[in-house]
Automatic annotation (TrEMBL), chain A:
Record-given protein name: Succinate--CoA ligase [ADP-forming] subunit alpha
GO terms assigned for molecular function: nucleotide binding; succinate-CoA ligase (ADP-forming) activity; succinate-CoA ligase (GDP-forming) activity
Summary of the function given for this chain in its UniProt record: Succinyl-CoA synthetase functions in the citric acid cycle (TCA), coupling the hydrolysis of succinyl-CoA to the synthesis of either ATP or GTP and thus represents the only step of substrate-level phosphorylation in the TCA. The alpha subunit of the enzyme binds the substrates coenzyme A and phosphate, while succinate binding and nucleotide specificity is provided by the beta subunit.
Catalytic site positions: H248
Keywords (A to Z) from UniProt: Ligase, Nucleotide-binding, Tricarboxylic acid cycle
Keyword Ligase in annotation: yes
Domain of life: Bacteria
Protein source organism: Cecembia rubra
UniProtKB/TrEMBL annotation, chain B:
Natural source organism: Cecembia rubra
Protein's gene: sucC
Residues that bind substrate: N280, G337, I338, V339
Protein name as catalogued: Succinate--CoA ligase [ADP-forming] subunit beta
Domain ATP-citrate synthase/succinyl-CoA ligase C-terminal per the UniProt entry, residue ranges: 278-398
NCBIfam families in the cross-refs: PRK00696.1, sucCoAbeta
UniProt keywords, alphabetically: ATP-binding, Ligase, Magnesium, Metal-binding, Nucleotide-binding, Tricarboxylic acid cycle
Binding positions (Mg(2+)): N215, D229
Pathway the protein acts in: Carbohydrate metabolism; tricarboxylic acid cycle; succinate from succinyl-CoA (ligase route): step 1/1
Similarity comment: Belongs to the succinate/malate CoA ligase beta subunit family.
Function statement: Succinyl-CoA synthetase functions in the citric acid cycle (TCA), coupling the hydrolysis of succinyl-CoA to the synthesis of either ATP or GTP and thus represents the only step of substrate-level phosphorylation in the TCA. The beta subunit provides nucleotide specificity of the enzyme and binds the substrate succinate, while the binding sites for coenzyme A and phosphate are found in the alpha subunit.
GO MF entries: ATP binding; magnesium ion binding; succinate-CoA ligase (ADP-forming) activity; succinate-CoA ligase (GDP-forming) activity
EC code: 6.2.1.5
Source superkingdom: Bacteria
Length: 293, 403
């Protein structure tokens, strides 16, 4: 079961023949993801990594029945690629690309919503359902199969959490990297909601960072929804100065409400097990679930 | 990316936004020439001299060396050079610069727009920014011009007018009218404000901005609406399609170490602490900073070396961190996923040897693919470097290194 991607996902890679696209497509195929082909405009009809290349997403969908797309297209063309995927009927669009102009995402987001597609990212590591499908750039071996869902704005911090979960004797149902940009397709709340409703997920790790109000919104929703599953939360950037962008385009403190301290307070007030140190994510999850770490 | 007031006003003017006219100068002589020219062009006989730095609060701020304010009024042409001299080359300290202040390299000589006339001049506030939660731009306006908007928002939230713009259709006429009416304007001033808001929004979209703050917007005594100040922030990700705007970047306004790091493709932010860090990934980098703090230290920097950490990037990172004299220890934290830990460890050893003697202890935490092999390479290198595998272990080693 799990959420967003699984062994039945038919995945196409947009930006398939580029260096990033090629490398990660190969890694995904080796992991066992059902990659059915790729799109590079102008290279349709050729074969790459033993998979067919198409000129458009529409052609790829018609020929392969693809329902999921992962995007490695350069930032200047990425919003266009996202909209193309939604227009062709792709239901799960995962955009890895970092550096897409905000104005482009502002148009792409409502466009894909109207077409009933879910967008994960951009500027994210992707989504993995261990043992079934990896549609992203994460190191697959770090994610052990299990029943903990992960929602995170950060890449390497997600790997860190997955590793700690494995060392605590637990595993991951699905890990969703939602991305670190100011405008992203799926909010923390929406991703948490998917995992709350997933019968194969028992508990959730929610990793956020400074900037925006997504974590606060998710925390309030979790409480309103009756704290149905335990959530362990961490916010990166407790030591970040206000007004400075910390790597991610969206990681910037704009006011009193989007600091790490404010978010952690709101999360705590809403029944989330907040960890202060990123080294404690796995241990606290084990403790919350009453298992020996 | 931030730009200066004089650059921001130039940008706005290009889109038909009325501005307080001014001419930029970098010497007292040039300031005098600017004032003369301004007098010929606008008829102004008073001159506002404004320090050009990337920080707010200039009017109340003080130049360390001369005690002049960052914005001063010269009521006579012959006063301009002296007043300009008191600001140019000085160090301006404002509430936003921190105690060290910022060096003033340029001033803007601007016309006086608060001249008396048929009605009282009045100040307003206008800004355009991204509402992240709604995924659209929002226009914020207030009758409390000249004040800090955060303060207005806190004390009088009812005095802040907000108008969200649908990204698919852009700003509509009725929206600009709504804002102008809510500001209590009428007659010609109302019409001027509608035009002002509309052109301002066009400028925002046209330049791929991420924030515009016009504070104050002035209604003059003859009912003109114009921008007296302009704070413009541009979306870094969109600069590739605005070559002319990208050229407005003023490197003198940025931390030299940050500029140097940028050239090596590293994302570095200088902080005030004593433990330097070098990490792959922005989220893990912030988390590492937090962990340093929890271990009893203070992070000296944010440094994201990106996905492909190797000997070259690690060496560049070392060189930048080591230029900060406050650094007492360095923590390298890399989660090797697709990049293998043994390769990163070799990169660290290579970089260390290439630099020679590094005077502070270094803790290298490598986790992920081949983590044990990575730790072995670090431990057997014979260098003043210690290894860690778990984050907890790294935290303890940081604590030991600085205590």
């Amino acid at each position: 079961m799990s959420v967003l991607v699984n062994k039945d996902s038919k995945v196409i890679v947009q930006g398939f023949t580029g260096s990033e696209g090629s490398f990660h497509a190969q890694q995904m195929i080796e992991y066992g993801t059902n990659v059915v082909g790729g799109v590079t405009p102008g290279k349709g009809g050729s074969t790459h990594l033993e998979k067919p290349v198409f000129n458009s997403v529409e052609e790829a969908v018609a020929a392969t029945g693809a329902n999921t797309s992962i995007i490695f297209v350069p930032p200047a063309f990425a919003a266009d690629a996202i909209m193309e995927a939604a227009d062709a009927g792709i239901k799960v669009i995962i955009a890895i690309t970092e550096g897409i102009p905000v104005a482009d995402m502002m148009k792409a987001k409502p466009y894909i919503k109207e077409r009933g597609a879910v967008l994960i990212g951009p500027n994210c590591p992707g989504v993995i359902t261990p043992g079934e499908a990896k549609v992203g750039i994460m190191p697959g071996f770090v994610f052990k199969q299990g029943r903990i869902g992960i929602v995170s704005k950060s890449g390497t911090l997600t790997y860190e959490a997955a590793d700690q979960i494995a060392k605590a004797g637990l595993g991951v149902s699905t890990a969703i990297g939602i991305g670190g940009d100011p405008i992203i397709g799926t909010s923390t709340k929406e991703a948490v909601q998917l995992l709350m409703e997933d019968p194969e997920t028992d508990a959730i790790v929610m990793i956020g960072e400074i900037g925006g109000n997504y974590e606060a919104e998710a925390a309030k929703w979790i409480r309103e929804n009756g704290n149905k599953k335990p959530v362990v939360g961490f916010i990166a950037g407790q030591t970040a100065p206000p007004g400075r962008r910390m790597g991610h385009a969206g990681a910037i403190i704009g006011g009193a409400d989007d600091t790490a301290a404010a978010k952690m307070r709101i999360m705590g007030e809403n029944g989330i097990h907040v960890v202060e140190s990123p080294a404690e994510i796995g241990a606290v999850m084990a403790k919350v679930l009453g298992v020996e770490a | 990316m931030n730009i200066h007031e004089y650059q921001a006003k130039e940008l706005l003017k290009g889109y038909g936004v009325r501005i307080q006219e001014g001419i930029v100068a970098d010497t007292p002589e040039a300031a005098l020439e600017a004032a003369k020219k301004l007098n010929a062009e606008t008829g102004t006989s008073w001159y506002v001299i404004k320090a050009q730095i990337h920080a707010g609060g200039r009017g109340k701020g003080k130049v360390k060396e001369t005690d002049s304010n960052g914005v001063v009024l010269a009521k006579k042409l012959e006063d301009v050079p002296e007043k300009a001299k008191n600001i140019l080359g000085g160090t301006l300290v404002t509430i936003q610069t921190g105690a060290e202040g910022k060096k003033v390299n340029k001033i803007l000589v601007a016309e006086d727009v608060y001249y008396p006339g048929a009605s009282e001049p009045k100040e307003y506030y206008l800004s355009i920014l991204l509402d992240r939660a709604k995924g659209s731009n929002v226009i914020m306006a207030s009758t409390e011009g000249g004040m800090d908007i955060e303060e207005v928002a806190e004390k009088h939230p009812e005095k802040i007018i907000k108008e969200w713009v649908d990204p698919k259709i852009g700003l509509q006429g009725f929206q600009a009218r709504k804002v102008a009416f809510k500001l209590g304007l009428e007659g010609n001033a109302f019409k001027e404000m509608v035009k002002f808001i509309t052109s301002l929004y066009n400028a925002y979209i046209g330049s791929d901005a991420s924030q515009f703050e016009i504070n104050p917007v002035l209604k003059t005594s003859d009912d003109k609406i114009l921008a007296v100040d302009a704070k413009v922030n541009l979306d870094d990700n969109a600069l590739y399609r605005h070559k002319d705007l990208a050229d407005l970047r003023d490197l003198a306004e940025e931390d030299p170490l940050e500029v140097e790091a940028g050239k090596s493709g590293l994302n570095y932010v200088k902080l005030d602490g004593n433990v330097g860090c070098m990490v792959n990934g922005a989220g893990l980098a912030m988390a590492t900073m937090d962990m340093i703090k929890l271990s009893g230290g203070e992070p000296a920097n944010f440094l994201d070396v990106g996905g492909g950490a190797n000997a070259t990037t690690v060496e560049a990172g070392f060189r930048i961190i080591l230029q900060d004299p406050n650094v007492k220890a360095i923590l390298i934290n890399v989660f090797g996923g697709i990049v293998r830990c043994d390769r990163i460890a070799n990169g660290v050893v290579e970089a260390y040897k290439s630099i020679g003697n590094i005077p502070v202890p270094i803790i290298v935490r490598l986790q992920g693919t081949n983590a044990e092999e990575g730790a072995r390479i670090i431990d057997e290198s014979g260098l003043k470097v210690s290894s860690a595998i778990t984050l907890k272990e790294a935290a303890e080693k940081v604590r030991a290194a600085i205590s």
